[in-house]
Amino acid sequence: MEESSSSETRKRTRTESEAGPIGEAGTKRDEEFWFKDGNVVLQAGGVAFRVYQGSLSLNSEVFAGLFSVPQPTLTDTFDGCPVIELADHPDDLRHLLRAVFVDQTFYRHNAQLPFVVVASVVRLAHKYGMEHLRDDALERMKSCFSDDLHVWAKAEASEGSALMTYDYTDAIAAVNIARLTETQSMLPYALYTCCQLDTEVILNGVPQKNGTTERLTQEDILRCLNARSTLVHDNIIFAYLLFTPTLPLACADQVCHASLQCLAQANLTFEGELEDPTCLADWITWLAHNEQTRSYNNLCLNCQAYMQLKARELRSDIWLRLPHILNLDVRVRDPSAEDP
Ligand SMILES: [Zn+2]
Q1: 301 CA from centroid of ligand 1 (Å)
Q2: The domain containing residue 53 runs over which residues?
Q3: Are residues 198 and 251 located together in one domain of the fold?
Q4: Do 295 and 332 have their domain in common?
Q5: Residue-level pLDDT at 145
Q6: What does the alpha-carbon distance between residue 15 and residue 30 come to, in Å, rounded to a whole number?
Q7: Distance 74 CA to ligand 1 centre (A)
């Protein structure tokens, strides 16, 4: 090691000490949240955060209560600061502290955040009574897990909204958060998305980066498995009704009849796809962008418009029946009432 003057050595020693363990259990100081003039140390999962009691109290009735009453857990001190042990994961706590101490508006506007960050803020803000933060994060979550078909469809097509990105497997956490915060409107689509997951994932949950596993409750697992058979059934009926239009298709063009027959033959055989529960899929976009594009494009504009209308009606119908299919006592917005 390089030699240093005594003052530099003293300085470096103090820095190393600050970066090292703060307690007997080998707790590390957090690199982002260690304010030198902080007056309380939050300790979570082996990481210590030195922050400000006043700001926490202002934002959280739970912390305010904790600081106002002498607690047995506050007997521990570090650098004169009381140490509070929390049962949270340090990554979750860091996301919450960013919302409180760095920039609350960051969480409200501008940035598109990953689901995992939004989920951490919802859960901890709910736990610590930070209602405004919880509600902001929930609004962000509802921009993807919406009860509005148009909002949902847009987010689904783009794998996220302007406010949040998500994976299909995040739907399990979305269901659990909807249950935790009693946000009923998120349940139908979040559970519908769970129904699209592999049975093994529905049963065993999804391992998270923080070492835990996100699981549905037994009740919601059963709800998904039961609903899935209905969704598979409805998907078949949907295709049948879409590709075998009856009298309203009064087109004299033989090309239209031949093209429609091609589409029906291609889509009503269900070879190997009998287990497909994606009955809210956007058929028209799909038809316009796959190997059946030619048959669809060969239809005259009137026939295309008829199919689009039919697909929209069928999709709206399933959307409205989703709560019933999932055995939920929740209302969703009527998509036809908002059609442009
Ligand atoms: Zn036609």
Answers
A1: 7
A2: 15-87
A3: no
A4: yes
A5: 95
A6: 14
A7: 77
